[in-house]
User: Fold Tyrosine recombinase XerC from Conexibacter woesei.
Amino acid sequence: MKNKAMSEQPSAPISDAWRRALALLESDLRRRGAAEKTRHAYAVDGGQFVRWADAHRLAPADVNPRALRRYAAGLTEAGQAPTTVGRKLASLRSLFRTLVEHGELQQNPADLLSAPRKAQRLPYVLKPVEVAALLDRIPADTALALRDRALFELAYASGLRAEELVMLDVGSIEFDGERVRVEGKGAKTRIVPAGEPALKAIARYLDRARPALATAESDGALFLSKSGRRLSTSDVRRRLRVWARQAAGVSTAGGVSPHALRHSFATHLLENGADLRSIQELLGHASISTTQVYTRVESARLRSAYANSHPRA
Assistant:
């Protein structure tokens, strides 16, 4: 609690030197046309720091990277999230930059301070048995159910983003080649294999359901809403949540989403021997570093298996 009290002193007076520094920052932000919300955030962050600095008898010229690291450590110990600490440090970088530009300081001590690393959340992944329970729960008794079965079979079979699913046209599916042509990010086209269950589900949907949903407004869209328009990404997420709640043995605590199916697609490929470069191409990642998150998923799974199984773990 000491650090929290140290970083929050709303009633403490501000010295003349720091009051002048905050006034210069406010003036510069106004001159640059910064929004009122931005100016307020900088004022709050700056005011919090200068009270801490005054409490430690630090004038603007006395602040160095070590002092800023102490301040940031106090924020972290007080329970501030890395994103919040990073934002506050960015505010201080602007504060000291202003002092340098006005000749009050020779250099910016915050330039040598790096923002705290954000904790990387591993993607939520369903087990293969959970994916099967989810997909097999979707019946083939209505046009919308047939559509949803085809939609989510394809999402998992080919690892497509929600945005890519809704942009598919009827002609995007190549049944003879057992693949789908996808328009990905940056208008880049890629060809992705589609498994037999997905292709069969799409064929049933095209034969029995899409004609009932189609209208003059449908154009060539593959997946249609009940009003005949192209599905939206929010439609896809909403329908998946509906089926996830009904599927036995599927935990919804992690948030079953189209992206969870995409993560599951990649992780299951990796677990069964696919190389990372191939998974990168299938997902349409521009950089292999983006795909490498799945190696951390696999590593976490192996560590868990080791901890649960090894007698001397």
User: Anything to note?
Assistant: The first strand starts at residue 173 and ends at 174. The two ends are 36 Å apart (CA to CA). Residues 1-11 have pLDDT under 50 and may be disordered. Strands lie at 173-174, 179-183, 189-193.
